[in-house]
Amino acid sequence: MPTFYRWVPKDHAEDALASGLVSHNGSAMWIFSMEKGYRPNMVKGRILLAFDLTDPAATNITTKKLLDFEDPEFGGENKHPWKIIVKNNEPGAYGIGRHRQATTNFHTKSRYATKKEVAKALGVSEMEVGDAYRPAGGWGR
After folding, report:
1. What's the per-residue H, E or C state across the chain?
2. Residue range 69-95, pLDDT digits in tens
3. Cα 121 to Cα 20: distance, rounded to the nearest angstrom
4. Residue 137 Cα distances to 29, 44, 66, 114, 122, angstroms
5. Phi, psi (5° rounding) for residue 51?
6. What digits encode the pLDDT tens for the residues 96-112?
7. Distance, CA of 89 to CA of 31 (rounded, Å)
8. Please, which residues have CB within 8 angstroms of residue 61's CB and are 6 or more apart in sequence?
9. Cα–Cα distance measured from residue 121 to residue 37, given in angstroms and rounded to the nearest whole number
């Protein structure tokens, strides 16, 4: 199962985990793959969620109905609820349109990232991962 990730504010981590791949505000849900090299830098005060997708779901969001953020027709995330938004400068990041989130969520297992995954996302060793990144219920498995 391919895994994708999302940093969420620590105060909202439990609700975000329960919601899975469904945005709380009706906009695109941004996730990233650690296989492509892009890492978001907004990590302070956040917890890393992991989304294990079935192979068909991962293929669907990485290859079907993609829309380049730089496209002149873009006009904002809310104008493309059936698309997957991609950015050339963020390889491996995907903005899942709001109408595709619920369907994709049926093919997803949401969990807290493991300490090893957090270390990889931060570009540090596991020993360097501070307690600030540990979810309230402990590290994921």
Report:
1. CCEEEEEEEHHHHHHHHHHCCCCCCCCCEEEECCCCCCCCCCCCCEEEEEEEECHHHHHHHHHCCEEECCCCCCCCHHHCCCCEEECCCCCCEEEECHHHHHHHHCCEEEEECCHHHHHHHHCCCHHHCCHHHCCCCCCCC
2. 888 877 788 888 888 989 888 889 999
3. 19
4. 24, 19, 36, 12, 20
5. -125, 110
6. 988 888 888 889 999 99
7. 14
8. 53, 84, 94, 96, 100, 104
9. 9
Report the chain's terminal Cα–Cα distance, integer Å: 15
Neighbour order of strands in the sheet with 108-112: 66-68, 84-86, 93-96, 29-32, 3-9, 46-53, 108-112
Q: Supply φ then ψ for residue 130, to 5 degrees.
A: -80, 165
CA 55 from centre of chain: 16
